[in-house]
Amino acid sequence: MSDTKKAVTKSGNLRTKKKANKKTVLVTGAAGALAQQVINRLRKEYNIVAVDFRKLSYHSDEIPSYKININKRGFEDLFKNYQFDSVIHLGRISSGEETRTNRYNANVIGTQKLMDLCHKYGIKNVLVMSTFHVYGASPYNPALIDESAPLLAAELTFDLVDSVELENLANIYLWRYPELNITILRPCNIVGPGVNNSMSNLLSSKYAPVLLGFSPIMQFIHIDDMAEAIAIAHKKSKRGVYNVATNDWIAYQEAVKLCGCREIPIPSIPPVLPRAITSVLKMKMFPSYLINYYKYPVVIDGSHFSETFGFEAKTPLREILRNYREMKE
Amino acid sequence: MSLKSFLKKTLVSKELSDQLDKIEKPVGSLGYDPWGFNSDTNKIVLSLFSGIYNKYFRVETSGIENVPATGPVLIIANHSGQLPIDGTLIGYAVSSREKSPRLPRAMIERFFPTVPFLGNFLNQVGAVLGDPNNCAKMLDNGEAIVVFPEGVRGSGKLYRDRYQLKRFGNGFVHLAMKHNTPIVPVGVVGCEETIPAFANFSPLAKLLNVPYIPLALPFILPAKVRLNFGKPISFSNDDLSEEQVTRRVEKVKSAINDLIAKGLDDRQGIFE
Questions:
Q1: What are the φ/ψ torsions at residue B16 (nearest 5 degrees)?
Q2: Are B213 and B200 in contact (CB under 8 A)?
Q3: pTM for this structure?
Q4: Could you read off the pLDDT of B47-68 as tens digits, one per residue?
Q5: Residue ranges of E strands in chain B
Q6: Are A22 and A82 in contact (CB under 8 A)?
Q7: DSSP per residue over A138-153, as a string?
Q8: pLDDT over 60 at A185, yes or no
Q9: At what angle do helices B242-266 and B171-178 cross, to 10 degrees?
Q10: DSSP code string of A3-50
Q11: B135 and B233 in contact (C-beta within 8 Å)?
């Protein structure tokens, strides 16, 4: 790529001069709060190209931004135009958004296409965002689940099949094309300002459903820390699968109380009852397919990531929960 | 003030609180560890349990100094009494001993996490799902772990089978060998008589997906409990066949049988 290149983005931004010594990173899912934090951390050191299929996001005049579906043919043009050095794939539709088919197409087929393009264009550093949900919430889960544990989520609910498939796919590419240096991150619950997942929405709300008699141990990581974890993993690029979690734990019902939520108890037995209640009420922040995650613990061991990348979360758990309480006051 | 804070303030004496604070526990900033142990709940329960341990079951211990002051250890005992009273008594005994108290973790049967309230409660006082991965991680953390290798075969046995050890699983010896961990055998005498069961409604238990539903008295008898701790047994981490491992398991089982026999010899009657 020449030192000077102009590219008019779909947002109408003018792509300014690219410095030859700066590497170029493609960030998918760029409209999300986490991606924006990641971009803020990388922008000084890298040229960023932001992509999201949901909406156009604006980051700065220097950062070209596109609203484009990975599965569309035009997506490859970005690889031709920008000569990416690395890809940070955060563009995953969370469980509960869209239909199962659309989610599968975006998360699994879309990721496969992205991986193929990474291979075709010789990308040497690919980071894929997964979730701790892939382990599945089962009463027989041990604590401190490490990366070698089986991914049981698909067995427990069809709504998480795409999450597990995305992981399996990334794993296949990780071993088939080691030169891609794929890093897969499985973070615990990401929370904090701007985070729009079911857990963060639940902690933000005035009323929080709880299953009577069940208060599983949970882990929370602040969005700032997660963005830092991604930035470090991208910079050091050590391929493999890593859990990302803090070394602090709390029971769900106590977390809810510390966030200033009023508990709404839901009968927990027989197991079909809470599923039926949440399905009928269409509770987005307490979806029926995630019921087991509010019943049984899925506590992951983040030590492999911490040791490999020298990462340590900085935001204390108490502060994370207090922020949610203060938001309500 | 939350209910937990109120109970802690009302029930937990400063002496007990100070003593328990001296025991190092790898808990997070809000008092929880990854297995759900909660230091405040544990203090409240131990305060309440003091009377049950000393006055109701009038527990007598011998050889409790055999549990090492630090480092990983597997405390292996016979299981009885329908409810996990034996594990709680062993836990209390070790955590309230004068010299080098420890907070041991009890491994519980796999159906407990599915029981509302009880599963979480047991976790908060230190009990952990009986899973080899859990056990391995805790041994790496240098914890003392109470294991009942008979599992539900032991706790659910009928009164007529009292003090007859059921089959032991081999898992604990594998863990002891792999993690270079001493085994302290314990013979529990008295818990068999706390909830004597005369029959088991197996079909109903199967229907409700629980291990057993005993025909038993609807209350817990104040049988006197004796906990006899034996000398630590260590096994080297050799490459053994399962049959050879079973022989090592039998050695531990035999030590527990001797400790039970000692406890039965010492007592004059069920309540004495």
A1: -65, -45
A2: yes
A3: 0.87
A4: 998 899 999 999 999 999 999 9
A5: 60-62, 73-77, 105-108, 128-129, 144-147, 183-189, 197-200, 214-216, 226-229
A6: no
A7: -TTPPSSB-TTS---H
A8: yes
A9: 110
A10: S----B-TT-PBP-PPPTTSEEEEEESTTSHHHHHHHHHHTTTEEEEE
A11: no
The continuous run of DSSP H or E covering A186 comes out as strand A182-187
Contact B173/B117 with Cβ under 8 angstroms? no
A247: amino acid identity, one letter: N
Does the pLDDT at position B253 exceed 50?
yes
End-to-end CA distance of chain B: 43
Half-sphere exposure of A199 (CA within 13 A, CB side): 23
Contact: B134, A142; criterion CB under 8 Å:
yes
Percent of chain A with pLDDT over 70: 93
- How high is the pLDDT of residue B11? 85
Of B80, B74, B105, B81, give the one whose Cα is nearest residue B91.
B105
pLDDT digits (tens, 9 = 90+) for B163-186: 899 999 999 999 999 999 999 999
A151-189: burial string, b at 16+ Cβ within 10 Å, e else: bbbbebbebbbbbbbbbebbbebbeebeebbbbbbbbbb
Choice among A54-68, B135-149, B150-164 with the minimum mean pLDDT: B150-164
Taking the CA of residue A258 and the nearest CA in chain B, the distance in Å comes to: 11
Q: Could you tell me the CA-to-CA distances from A258 to A192, A204, A323, B59, B175 in Å, in that order? A: 14, 11, 10, 39, 39
Q: Are strands B226-229 and B183-189 parallel, antiparallel or unpaired?
A: antiparallel
Contacts of A268 in chain B (CB under 8 A): 116
pLDDT beyond 50 at A240: yes
Task: Kindly determine whether residue A248 and residue B28, on different chains, have CB atoms separated by under 8 Å.
Answer: yes
- Cβ within 8 Å, pair B34-A269: no
Confidence label for A1 from pLDDT (cuts 50, 70 and 90): very low
* Interface test with chain B among A152, A211, A249, by most B beta carbons within 10 Å: A249
CA angle A176, A180, A186 (to 5 degrees): 90
- List CB contacts (< 8 A) between B124 and chain A: 251
Tens of pLDDT, residues A114-149: 999 999 999 999 999 999 999 999 999 999 999 999
| Cα separation, A246 vs A255, whole angstroms | 15
Beta partners for residue A50, in sequence order: A27, A65
Give DSSP secondary structure letters for B222-263: ----EEEE---B--------HHHHHHHHHHHHHHHHHHHHHH
Confidence at residue A19, expressed as pLDDT on a 0 to 100 scale:
53
Q: By the 8 A CB rule, do B188 and B90 touch?
A: yes
Structure tokens at B170: 């081999």
**Partner-chain contact A257 B113, CB within 8 Å:** no
Task: Specify the range with the lowest mean pLDDT, choosing from A135-144, B81-90, B144-153.
Answer: B81-90
Cα–Cα distances (Å) from B207 to B112, B201, B204, in that order, read: 16, 10, 5
- Pick the closest to residue B40 from B31, B49, B52 (CA basis): B31
* Over residues B117-140, mean pLDDT: 91
Per-residue pLDDT at A179: 96
Interface size between A and B, measured as CB pairs under 8 A: 78
